[in-house]
Amino acid sequence: MASYVGEFEQLILLAVLRLGGGAYGVAIRRAIQQRTGQDVAAGALYTALGRLEGRGLVSSRVAESTPERSGRRRKYYRVEPAGAAALHRSVTIVGRMAEGLLPELEALAARAVGAGRPR
Amino acid sequence: MTAAPPRLARWILRATVRGAAREFILGDLEEEYRAFALLQLGRRGANRWYWSQALRSVWQFDPAAAQSWDPPNRPQPKPRGSAMTSFVRDVRLAFRNLRRTPAFATVVVITLALGIGATTAIFSAVNDVILRPLGYADPGRLVMLWEENAERGWDQVQVAPANAFDWRERVQAFSDVAVLSEFPRNVALTGVGEPVMVDLGELTGNTFALLGVAPMLGRTFTMEETGAEHDPVVILGYDLWRSRFGGDPDVVGTAIRLEGTTHHVVGVMGPDFRYGFADVQAWRPFRWTRARRQSVWFRQAHTYRAVARLAPGVSFERARSELDAVAAQLQTEHPQLNRSMGAGLTPLHEFLVGDRRAPLLLLLGSVGVLLLVACANVATLWLVRALERRREMAVRTALGASRGRIVRQLLTESLVIAGVGGALGLALGVWGFRGLSALRPPEFPDLTLHLDWRMFGFSTGVTLVSALLFGIVPALRSRDFGLRESLAAGSRAGTGSRSTFRTIEGLVAAEIALALVLVVGAALMVRTMGRLRAVGLGFDPENVLTFTVIVPEGKYPEWQRRADFALRLEDRLEGVPGVQGVGLARPLPLTGLSWSSDFAVEGRGPGEYGSEVRHREASAGYFRAVGVPLRAGRLFDDRDGPHAPLAVIINEAMAATYFSGEDPVGKRIAFDRVPDETSNWYTIIGVVGNERQLIAREPAPQITAHYRQDLPGELLYVVKTAVPPLTVVPAVREALRQLDPDIPLYEVRLLDSVVREAVSLERFLMLGLGVFAAAALSLGAVGVYGVTSQAARRRVREIGIRMALGASAGRIVAHLVMRVVRFSAAGVILGLGAAAAGTRAMSGLVFGISPTDPVTFTLVPAILATVALVAGYLPARRATRVDPMAVLKTE
């Protein structure tokens, strides 16, 4: 059974996928922020990427250093086939469960405006 | 690269993030900082952004996960969690645990924040007044010089300028001596907008150089500029420069008019310059004439301050002995004027802090006691909570957590919560400081807040110490939460072991003891205030308005014209509707301001002189306006005009001291120890009742000269009204305007407020101690309540059984309350001992009672005991309301 990835990891994998060859820390953070409005802390991002890499879902390569990073190197990520499979599976599961419910969901959610973020 | 992210934030990141990820996190944030944040948010915004990113990254970074993705082909030392990261993990866990019990966390945070906030507020005053350096060059070498005279009862009094100049010349240990006036000269500044009164400090030209301070603009004075033979020059203070000259940098070199005379502005002092000797807005060199400097007055006017700088390499002791030697020389050279006149020196900072040290340290000590009470209170809460978590701890021990690990976790939790309380406390402290400076007595003219390293260091220190104080006992008691005992306690977890319970009772007893100390302190101040209020003032301050008018010498050069002005204004004021009486008097009673001299009575032997008689100038209307009774003779009238024989009125204290058994009226006196042909003779025309010159002192002998014969520079009017005094102010202003529209009315206030001000330090201490005592008492009561509720809860089964067996509710209440009596009594006895020792620090601050006032020491323990009993009785009574059957069923 292919593994499942959580919501946060889905966001990251989708961002890496979307960025193609240009997926490194800053780009990933900004991609997520622009699309979802979530400001992911760098510490959290690398913690999650580390976990994903440990599970073989992404791979990385260390690239050139640039002056605006005071000589520190960038690390670029790529989604591995196993990662793609897990992401596909996770997204589809949610999609299947949500199928046909979106209009109702929107109506219900509109009533909950003002309620706190679900934990 | 132009801009780099904040260094400290980067350092924190580097220190906390371990492993290979550090390079990428730092690099990413720096890149984003430069490429986006700076452009979009600006420098400040970007720095804030970086800080929040950095802190969140520290928070949300997990090195354990990072470990797994370190490329296996690049061997790295296994990143073991450093002390820092494991601390971060502990902190995170602590937050999680505290969030689980929000009510507990809130109560603890609020208690600590109030305790730390109050402490911080008081400390900020201590910081400002006592700790902050003067801002002068090498301030440790500056000394205040003073004179003393055993014969006159003088101790550390102001110096006569002639003596100070002799010290300047003869004492080799001083590299320089400066003379300055302690009382500002109030002069009119004209020609820049509306005329305004300015407080001017006068000094010798070398003062700024001696203090080692540089002006912000222009230059300071030179010694040669001292004296009336030089053109007048002035240095503006920063505030005056901003408010009256619009901060114009070209003001240096221009001329302004002070007292109607042209003064050249030579410099402006910066905003950080603190003068320290008087509250003034501008400075100028003394305008002494040559004749004045050579007159007897120059060695007689003990009204100036002298500051010296010790010469390089000279010890304080050597300076003292040299000064002593020179003072002795001056005694022989001026046997009359300098008779038994000694001199001495005190480090300048110590002298300037002076009397303000004791009240501030008293408040700091009291608030420290309050903080201890708060910590004891939090410790009891912490212990109760620890009891409730026994099973958690036992399970963690069983799963292999070492004792040290658990102690560390508990201490981290207390540190975290103290940190939150401390941060909140600092904010509260800043806020409390505002309140403090709004209530400050005149002894503290300008309290200012300095959020400097001392403040942050202090509040951090206080926070850490509190965390240790309330955290250490529960943490060490965690061995109670051993596996066997706790798991065996089973369903009764949360009721607590006997010894932990004892500890809680001990802490509550300590709270009672500490609260008692504070309540005793507050009660002593309340009693002091009562005694001060009951003092017979000797005059009636009700419905009396006072204000000052200065008739400028520039416009009215002859004193006769100024005296006429005073008389005409007095007449006009009499005609204002609602006014019952008008008079002049300077100084006002209770202000302690006056000068004193020796005097001789005509016809008595040369040795029979009196000394230290206080002087005042007044009109007859003054005595009538404030209700000072005439005891003998008469008040001033038309017979005592400017050309008539000089007349004085003496008070009863003087009559009793120097004229016992004879009638002083008609006697003539001169204000010299040995009168000669140059002496002025004054005839005593009347005796009036005593007025207090200082509220806490018995009235001293005083003479009042007639203002028409001895015109003061400032006309201080008192107006007795039949209506609320402030309602006549517009009419008073109008009366003055009609006489001369250029003369302002100032220092308008009620005589009542002069009386209030005389006890303002005592009121300030009473309020401060009262607030702290009330807070400590409430915390103590909460502690007693809590511990008794806990005791009742612990024994709910026993109580249920007893009641089922027929014990009356009264017996059970009595049983529970007996415990309260026992530990409260211990607390009260302990507190009495501590209070008796502690209130000795108040001996200089209480009035009319001793610091171990028996009334206070009887009443306060009774109050404390009552509060404790009530706080214990309430939960005890509630415990008896249990339904015995319900209790037994749950068992």
Q: How far from one another are the termini of chain B? A: 73 Å
Q: Could you give a short account of the major beta sheet of chain A?
A: 2 strands, antiparallel
Please write the string of helix (H) and strand (E) elements of chain A: HHHEEHH
How many DSSP-defined strands of chain A?
Answer: 2
Question: What does this 3D model show about the protein?
Answer:
The complex is a heterodimer of chains A (119) and B (891). With 119 residues, chain A is an alpha+beta fold. Chain A is built from 5 helices and 2 strands, in the order αααββαα. Chain A has a two-stranded antiparallel ribbon. In chain A, strand 1 and strand 2 form a beta hairpin. In chain A, helix 1 (7-19) packs across helix 2 (25-36). The two termini of chain A are 28 Å apart. Helices cover 52% and strands 15% of the residues of chain B. With 891 residues, chain B is α+β, with helices and mostly antiparallel strands. In chain B, a hairpin with a 7-residue loop joins strand 15 and strand 16. In chain B, strands 4-5-10-7-9-8 form a 6-stranded mixed beta barrel. Chain B has a 6-stranded mixed barrel with strand order 15-16-21-18-20-19. In chain B, strands 1, 2, 3, 11 and 12 form a 5-stranded antiparallel beta sheet that branches. The chains are: A alpha+beta (119), B alpha+beta (891). The interface between A and B is medium-sized, with 29 and 31 residues.
